[in-house]
């Protein structure tokens, strides 16, 4: 019986410099193996393409630097916040220029989000102007977020007391930049950051009503805590991430949008259609470095569905699953915060350390 292993999100095989036509043939053990027929691409052609990309990037970099934009820290296909050479960040002197470079590093576009400036432009991969630089009108850029623009302020006494009842300390709240929305209502603000930069915010009322800032990139909450981690713990909510940190594991992140009601389909969607789990693709650079991923989702059916969806994309062979302690003969505690509040830090730490391989836990 042949078992086809579908490629996982972060364990895909390297791209080969050939195309393959599979052909079945028996091996020495009597099993069928797949022998690819390779269509060779001349190395000279590949070298020409590589040299062209290097030349295009050098030309692009020169044009960008002539405008005063320093793009050394830019990652292709990502929006990077830089210092605007026109307004120098205005009064706040913040990095208010959103800059984007194409994957082939041969074109770029940018816009300054300082209201007093608004400078924008692009450099296409073909020269339609004498200098190859075009001024732009309105463009669809991700929003530039700041604590001031979102009207955020430090947590007040009421919310500090609320988190204290949930066994989460002031130090943990401060380290994770948990804030509140200014105004008469009591609204928690979980700030999402990448490389220290505010890129999103999720709000929560004490009555458990949730909403997020529109137009922000979807990423894992606590992303900067796992940038170089070999082991990553994934939970279902921001408060669970804070709880796991209280148990001694800062290498923890939370999904941004909770759990699905069930497994969507047996087949994984193509990347461009897999919008619900786009935060995994957006955090690929960090996740692919981990050799062990501990899934500590909720113990209910949606939580189990989330664990399955994550394991399918991350690779089940490197996933472990947490089994929450028993509450009584018929039920178990639901999540990390329930365990922390009812059983304490050591019990939560033990539950995470006793995670079992995902494939073993889900044999049935």
Fold blueprint:
Layout: E1 18-26, E2 32-40, H1 43-66, E3 79-82, E4 97-101, E5 108-112, E6 120-123, E7 134-135, E8 152-153, H2 157-165, H3 170-175, E9 178-181, E10 187-194, E11 197-205, E12 210-212, E13 231-235, H4 238-246, E14 252-254, H5 278-282, H6 284-287, E15 292-296, H7 301-314, E16 319-321, H8 336-343, H9 345-353, E17 356-357, H10 358-361
Parallel strand pairs: 13-14, 13-15, 15-16
Antiparallel strand pairs: 1-2, 3-4, 4-5, 5-6, 6-7, 8-9, 9-10, 10-11, 11-12, 16-17
Helix pairs in contact: 8-9
Which strand order do you get reading across the main beta sheet? 3-4-5-6-7
What gap, in angstroms, lies between the N and C termini?
19 Å
> What fraction strand?
15-25%
Query: In DSSP terms, counting alpha (H) and pi (I) runs of 4 or more, how many helices?
Result: 10
- Low-pLDDT sequence parts: 1-41, 126-130
Could you tell me the number of beta strands? Answer: 17
Shape: globular
User: How are helices and strands ordered from N to C?
Assistant: EEHEEEEEEHHEEEEEHEHHEHEHHEH
Helix content: 25-40%
**Main beta sheet: strand number and arrangement?**
5 strands, antiparallel
Radius of gyration: 24 Å
The secondary structure category is alpha+beta
For the residues shown, what is the average pLDDT? Answer: 82
InterPro entries: TOPRIM_DnaG/twinkle (IPR034154), TOPRIM_dom (IPR006171), Twinkle-like (IPR027032)
Domain Toprim: 230-319
GO molecular function, one term: 5'-3' DNA helicase activity
Protein name: Toprim domain-containing protein
